[in-house]
Amino acid sequence: MTDRVVRWGVVGPGRIARKVAADFPHVPEAALTAVASRSKERAQAFADEFGLSAVHDYRTILEDPDVDVLYLATPHPQHRAMALAAIRAGKHLLVEKAFTVTPEATREIAAAAAEHGVFVMEAMWTRFQPAVVKLRQLIAEGAIGEVRAVQADLGAQQNADPADRFFNPALGGGALFDLTVYPISFAQMVLGTPEAVHAHGVLAETGVDVEESVLLTYPEGRSATLFASLLCQSPGMARVVGTGGWIEVPPRFHHPVSLRVHRNGHDPEELSLWPLGVGYSHEIAEVTAGVRAGRVESTVMPLADTVAVQDIMAAVASQLGLQVQEGPADLEH
């Protein structure tokens, strides 16, 4: 692609899409121009709010030649069909986390992206926050020695109404795909793919998971201890522990604005690293730069990492007895 502005469309104009859309003014190389929804009224309301020129249903946005990239913000089980259809239509993609609800669907999308040569990335905004970018730099520089452990929690108490999306298995409800994905992805980012996954938790009457503790074990005794809950609020902190110290990521660790670096034998160091806008701008910029450069993948959030995280979540789901409902591969269903 030339250096022209990359044109974006939103599929699924819900709460998260509104937050992401508000950050587009911080990325001058990207322009949000279109929206698609199963509801014409919802799409029109979103278009009016953000000044978009094109309002579509799911099928017609794929046919719009003035849209280069689609941001998929539909419920998790619906990602598969839209992503596959978009890839076949030659659209680049930013797919909201969790990428899908099964590793099989994630691999299917990754294979299709490779076949068609389009840029596809999971919208794991955490990895692009300036504080997390600095965290990875400090670890790579050996600031805390050899990393031995990761600890992270994320609890967000939700209304226990069974009709709520969080408790609806058909909409990918439960803690795993909305909350636990964050500490799992954080641990995978720091320690890589684990040797084993151990999970303990509880299911709601609707069959979705509402709380879990997860232990990931790695070679040479390294580990990640993770907790997520829809039943209780928790601090939302993360800690990376090494032989030469540790780094704390203060609440909420999945979109932090600071770090506390504790080097053995030294006073703690506080680093303030604020995102641009709310923080979604950085993932928008990553996709936009990749598309303009003709790349098909992000080096910060590669599809191999997304697959690895989905494999871990599948192991958690299996151990909890969670019955996952993946959506169809065909957009018409």
UniProtKB/TrEMBL annotation:
Residues 6-122 form the Gfo/Idh/MocA-like oxidoreductase N-terminal domain. Gene3D superfamilies: Dihydrodipicolinate Reductase, domain 2 (3.30.360.10), NAD(P)-binding Rossmann-like Domain (3.40.50.720). Pfam families: GFO_IDH_MocA, GFO_IDH_MocA_C3. The keyword Oxidoreductase applies. Residues 133-248 form the GFO/IDH/MocA-like oxidoreductase domain. Keywords: Oxidoreductase. InterPro entries: Gfo/Idh/MocA-like_OxRdtase_N (IPR000683), Gfo/Idh/MocA_domain (IPR050984), GFO_IDH_MocA-like_dom (IPR055170), NAD(P)-bd_dom_sf (IPR036291). Belongs to the Gfo/Idh/MocA family. This is Gfo/Idh/MocA family oxidoreductase.
